[in-house]
């Protein structure tokens, strides 16, 4: 009996060519048919957007893979309006109501394409479903309470002391302030969340595990971009084995730290686990889940706060008049550095305004985290009906930089947040600023991040005059994956108390 291979070899060459042509034609017809459906017959066909984005996932995937996804989506909003179609089944909003509805409604579930399973396979607070997220957040809550913050002030001030002293030893040198902020925040959150000191600041270099933390943000962004094409997803996965290996090493390290801390049951500490172990129902605690959550808190808690502070330093440096105003206010208010505390920095209006404007101008979570419509009957957002399965998002960058929400949106103007602002900002929608997200899944560490930002920026500018180096004039021109890919931020510091 002849094999299929033998039969194929005996087929007339012209017939083989016809079969190949027929297969190619079928693929073209299928693609054209799908494109026509997406353009004219899809339930989303009335939502405006670029031609190629309406018929194909490719522009969306390509731009996000390059790290240009945030400005790409912003450009679509600028041209087509507040509700746009960025891919055949993806809708983006730049309205505050859209933002609240997308992230505040339980029926809009987290998009599984956005998350790579942790190395252990155990869920953490980031990817947990609604039931598990509520349970995890409940036992974490006391660790982020006002009482917990008050008890942790001494520890946080101690790490800021290390930060200031390290910079003082390098006065008049060119310093990468972004790295110093990273080191300080990772040391701080490591101690608070893991009872572990990475000792970045003391050693003036990244701990090997911290140095690879951004890998996780980049991986999530790359896999989200590749998710539309299963074959490409597999290719990316194979191509990034080294990044996956680093990610697993980081996870395993933190897993061991959390495991040892939880099992020790040590009393008298003020780290996160002290509050969890004291207040949680033991039946609610799953060891692998605690390990994953601890890993996620370190990554999210340190990187985002550090990013905002680096952004504030840069934006003030290129706006010297505003730097002078803030410095004058801080140095007039505080005669001694010991007066700079959690409570006192909350009473400096211009400091608060600078940080609010930094969060608006340069949000650390600029990326529009995707949700999926699950209701069988669909969902209506801003009078646009979305069928079940539609992927929806609202990028903070697009919302905060929209002219519909803020006057002069592409200018850094802290004064817009003050009571005596210029009348041009009278109609600014302050409620549109939601840098810690919205709803039950908003940032659990919001209060901690706010006091860290205020305290560190106040003490930095109280102690030093900061001058931006020419190498970093265009620092803010960055790529974005899940977070910003920050280059070094070089500055020169003059110690106002020990001038040479």
TrEMBL record:
The prosthetic group or cofactor this protein requires is: heme
Give residues annotated as binding heme. 443
Does Cell cycle appear among the keywords?
Answer: no
Supply the alphabetized keyword list: Heme, Iron, Metal-binding, Monooxygenase, Oxidoreductase
GO MF terms listed in the record are: heme binding; iron ion binding; monooxygenase activity; oxidoreductase activity, acting on paired donors, with incorporation or reduction of molecular oxygen
One family name in Pfam for this protein: p450
Does this UniProt record's set of keywords contain Ribonucleoprotein? no
Q: Which family does it belong to?
A: Belongs to the cytochrome P450 family.
| Protein name as annotated | Cytochrome P450
Species, as recorded = Massarina eburnea CBS 473.64
